[in-house]
Design brief:
Radius of gyration: 24 Å
Number of strands: 3
Strand order of the largest sheet: 2-1-3
Order of helices and strands: HHHEHHEHE
Strand content: 15-25%
Helix content: 55-70%
Structural class: alpha+beta
Shape: rod-shaped
Distance between the termini: 55 Å
Largest sheet: 3 strands, antiparallel
Number of helices: 6
């Protein structure tokens, strides 16, 4: 029994997203496989870990010249009081937030760098 490749492709073009999703799940179950993209062996050794990281720690590395502005920004990001924010900035390098989503971490970093701080995402 030979496969009619063109007929299969035509059928897939006509299928809805839900039907295609059900097809993928059925193939995964039937053949005990996964539809996840394969990871190259070299990247899996460690190079891919940083790219796949989904939570980051935002670390204030250095306050810079505009310490007062940095303290104000730290207050707005963390919700800490003035004294706690000042202590955090004075004690740099210190982690400001832990386990933050990438987009939020980048946003915090850009806000702090805009007022002269040096920030590292870990």
């Amino acid at each position: 029994m030979a496969l009619d490749t063109q007929k299969i492709i035509d059928d897939l073009k006509d299928a809805s997203i839900l039907e295609l999703n059900d097809l993928v799940k059925a193939i995964e179950e039937e053949f005990d496989v996964t539809a996840a993209a394969p990871v190259a062996a070299g990247a899996a050794a460690g190079g891919d870990a940083a790219a796949e990281k989904d939570s980051f720690d935002v670390e204030l590395t250095e306050a810079g010249q505009e310490k007062v502005k940095v303290i104000k920004e730290v207050r707005s990001i963390t919700g800490l009081g003035l004294k706690d924010s000042k202590d955090l900035v004075d004690g740099a390098p210190k982690v400001i937030k832990e386990g933050v989503a990438k987009a939020d971490a980048e946003d915090m970093k850009s806000k702090l760098e805009a007022v002269g701080a040096t920030v590292t995402l870990k």
